[in-house]
Write a structure and sequence with these properties.
Immunoglobulin-like; 6-stranded mixed sheet; 3 domains; mainly beta; 43% strand
Length: 430
């Protein structure tokens, strides 16, 4: 009897110690702090990396799905904190300018406008631990029921203030036919540098009372929010046909082919990698880039700014790929003021402190380092002068021959409504 009592006491003490240890561990895990919502493609924490958001089976395509269809979008991301967290997501309807459309969730969402992300996995044998999350959306419980712009929001513990990610996506009601044409610039001085787009829109059976007020067209180059233009006034109106071919509109600088690097394997340095250093973390120095703004066009293959998570040495790129500190260098003797940023689809072309470069005067080189997951990356450089003027082609120039993809989105606001429907969408390649 005494022996059984001793065992029980020992077991009670052990269980109490384990409970105290677990309680301490729970206290150590800090919750995501409250964040201010931004109606843009935003990572709210530096520990959230490698966000991918595109239609299922159409890697890196613009996140567009057709209304009342079986189309789905895939959202995947890594959390470098490495633990398991309760992440939820919901959506919000926006107008063409990405402002709230003042609709209630009951008006634009079927089912419940919130769901938990249940598909996650820890990293395997990586120097940088992380947890990989994925969700395919819409689901049976949450789906949009109106066309237009939407913001997908991901947050912790069902608390919408504790945001970690927001991503824009588009729901299309294909009611209008869009016919684009890509031509050289009308201005003779820009014919070797620019790409002009003319557009014809057939409104079909949709009644548009005032096309000068109700129709808006947005055009992006390579899905870049920093390279886009808007049309609000058709040049000609002929019944249900709207023609947009004004000489002064949709005249884009062609830019140049994107620069790239390959980190699918860390065993051997690829073409654009100068050296690989392995310590407690992995460091990769890229070959220094030259400034090509005055150089002639040279045709090279690129992915129009996209990135791909890939690993040649491991079976599962999502959970077995490691994170690498990648150092970028741009040799430039003439541009020494303002700010230079490394941008691409991997950071949504956003400009912030994480991808801002510093100028090394003795080496006459701009440099910065970023933590990136193994894969294939396209990138370019953007300059912002002291007055705030943004130059997206300062290091590469503009060329008519450049291979670009343009996304054309047509919005219609019906009389008496407060939101914009996406009624036409098409892509055109040069």
């Amino acid at each position: 009897m005494k022996k059984l009592l001793a065992i029980a006491v020992t077991l009670f003490i052990c269980l109490g110690a384990m409970a105290q240890k677990q309680k301490k561990q729970r206290k150590k895990r800090e919750r995501t702090p409250p964040q201010e919502l931004v109606y843009n493609n935003t990572n709210y924490l530096p520990t959230i990396k490698s966000v991918q958001f595109y239609p299922v089976d159409q890697e890196n395509a613009l996140p567009v799905i057709e209304l009342h269809s079986d189309d789905q979008l895939m959202l995947a991301f890594d959390d470098l904190r490495g633990d398991v967290r309760n992440y939820y997501f919901s959506m919000e309807h926006c107008d063409a300018d990405w402002k709230p459309s003042r609709l209630s969730p009951l008006e634009y969402a079927e089912g419940f406008n919130e769901e938990r992300i249940v598909d996650y996995a820890p990293s395997v044998n990586t120097l940088q631990p992380y947890t990989h999350y994925r969700v395919d959306f819409p689901t049976r419980n949450i789906k949009p029921k109106l066309a237009g712009n939407y913001l997908l929001k991901v947050y912790e513990d069902a608390d919408k203030r504790r945001l970690i990610i927001s991503r824009r996506f588009y729901v299309l009601a294909p009611l209008m036919m869009v016919s684009p044409q890509l031509v050289p610039s009308v201005e003779v001085a820009k014919r070797r540098s620019n790409q002009k787009i003319n557009i014809m829109v057939n409104t079909g059976g949709l009644t548009v009372n005032n096309p000068y007020q109700d129709i808006r067209i947005g055009v992006m180059q390579n899905q870049r929010p920093d390279v886009q233009q808007w049309l609000t006034t058709p040049h000609f109106v002929n019944g249900n046909e709207l023609t947009y071919n004004d000489n002064k509109t949709l005249d884009f600088g062609g830019g140049n082919e994107f620069r790239y690097f390959d980190l699918r394997s860390l065993r051997l340095a690829s073409e654009r990698v100068a050296n690989i250093k392995l310590d407690s973390t992995i460091h990769v120095d890229l070959v220094a880039d030259e400034n090509y703004r005055d150089a002639a066009y040279a045709s090279t293959f690129d992915e129009n700014g996209d990135f791909f998570i890939r690993n040649q040495d491991k079976a599962d790129a999502d959970t077995e790929s490691d994170y690498v500190w990648v150092t970028f260098s741009l040799v430039d003797e003439s541009t020494t003021d303002g700010a230079v940023y490394v941008v691409g689809s991997f950071n949504n072309y956003n400009r912030n402190e994480a991808n801002k470069m510093t100028y090394n005067a003795p080496a006459k080189t701009w440099q910065c380092s970023m933590l990136l997951k193994q894969g294939l990356y396209d990138y370019t450089y953007v300059h912002v002068d002291p007055s705030g003027k943004v130059d997206t082609s300062f290091s590469d120039g503009n060329h008519f021959e450049t291979n670009n993809t343009y996304q054309i989105l047509v919005y219609n606001r019906r009389p008496g409504t407060t939101w914009d429907e996406l009624t036409g969408f098409v892509e055109i390649n040069h």
